[in-house]
């Protein structure tokens, strides 16, 4: 699959520009879904300890017949496992469930603004794992510019990635700018606006947006493909999720057309400033903590 465009992280490691996400994919559907993605040509899988499906992601990788070295495996440490020793152990739990020796990208799932000391200790554990060759790159998720600043003051390795909510209705230009200034790759979660579908209880919203639909028609592509192309052309990593075979394929068929600068700007202008996910400033152990099982 030499035709998949890649992105280069700030430590020289590369990853495919379009990956495959498995948030809310039930464990009993995950093996089939990830196998379908790997058959389609995806070579980057994004999971998380908190998704409860790392074991099935690992099983799908083994069943796929694709060599482990060709697949970029990303997972996330949940906040309940923050702290130096706890985060080292979180790596062991995730690697054990995935059945891998090395994790390609390990990131902190959220900042804990009211326990930033724990967040820093967790990140220091990631730095140790990186130095020891247990992970090939480290990063963060849902970090706002002030979290990135506080992290930079207390740690040595600049995160390779900040995985944040980015879709046409919530673009977070301040986060995009802070990431770019620090040399951090922005990775878009809910890249086609999935979080807004959950909120509305149906597939609506970005997929039916008249601007996006109009651009899609002009290119004979789907709205989802236009949104993924928008991420690619603006230099972001994107990790669309689908358990539907034809959509898994559709979301990977985005390398043969080009949006114009005017079209990119029209999509940028759709930003409503309304966040779909939890407010990062409000994430606490009390509200969101939960036990991550052993491998
Ligand atoms: P997405 O933007 O990827 O949208 C997923 C939704 O869109 C699903 O309901 C899916 O349905 C549907 N869908 C997928 N492709 C198409 C298509 N071509 N046409 C129409 N509908 C489509 O949202 P997610 O929230 O799932 O985000 C993607 C990934 O980002 C997650 O899986 C996870 O890996 C990561 N993530 C990370 C978070 C974090 O805090 N770091 C938070 C949220 C997500 P169906 O599956 O039924 O086909």
Describe this structure in words.
This protein is of the alpha/beta class and 295 residues long. The protein has a domain at 13-196 and 233-248: NADP-dependent oxidoreductase domain (TIM Barrel, Alpha-Beta Barrel), CATH 3.20.20.100. It is built from twelve helices and ten strands. It has an eight-stranded parallel beta sheet. The longest helix has 16 residues, at 116-131. NADPH dihydro-nicotinamide-adenine-dinucleotide phosphate binds at residues 21-23, 46, 109, 141-142, 163, 189-195, 197, 203, 207, 222, 224, 239-244, 247, 250-251, 277.
List keywords for this structure.
globular; TIM Barrel; 295 residues; two-stranded antiparallel ribbon; alpha/beta; 8-stranded parallel beta sheet; 12 helices; binds NADPH dihydro-nicotinamide-adenine-dinucleotide phosphate
């Amino acid at each position: 699959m030499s035709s998949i465009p890649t992105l280069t992280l700030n430590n020289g490691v590369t990853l495919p520009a379009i990956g495959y996400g498995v948030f809310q994919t039930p464990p009993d559907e995950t093996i089939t879904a990830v196998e379908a993605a790997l058959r389609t040509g995806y070579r980057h899988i994004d999971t998380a300890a908190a998704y409860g499906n790392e074991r099935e992601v690992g099983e799908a990788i083994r069943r796929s017949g694709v060599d482990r070295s060709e697949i970029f495996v990303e997972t996330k440490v949940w906040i309940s496992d923050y702290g130096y020793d706890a985060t080292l152990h979180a790596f062991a739990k995730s690697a054990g469930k995935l059945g891998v020796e090395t994790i390609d990208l390990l990131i902190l799932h959220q900042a804990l603004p009211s326990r930033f000391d724990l967040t820093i200790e967790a990140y220091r554990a990631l730095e140790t794992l990186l130095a020891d060759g247990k992970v090939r790159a480290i990063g963060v998720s849902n970090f706002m510019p002030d979290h990135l600043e506080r992290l930079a003051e207390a740690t040595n390795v600049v995160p390779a990635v900040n995985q944040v909510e980015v879709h046409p209705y919530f673009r977070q230009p301040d986060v995009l700018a802070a990431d770019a200034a620090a040399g951090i790759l922005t990775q878009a979660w809910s890249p086609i606006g999935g979080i807004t579908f959950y909120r509305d209880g149906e597939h609506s919203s970005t997929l039916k947006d008249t601007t996006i639909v109009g651009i899609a028609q002009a290119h004979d592509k789907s709205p989802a493909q236009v949104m993924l192309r928008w991420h690619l052309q603006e230099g972001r990593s994107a990790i669309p999720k689908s358990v539907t075979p034809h959509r898994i394929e559709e979301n990977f068929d985005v390398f043969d057309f080009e949006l114009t600068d005017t079209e990119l700007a029209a999509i940028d202008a759709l930003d409503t400033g309304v966040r779909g996910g939890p407010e990062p400033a409000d994430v606490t152990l009390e509200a969101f903590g939960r036990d991550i099982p052993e491998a």
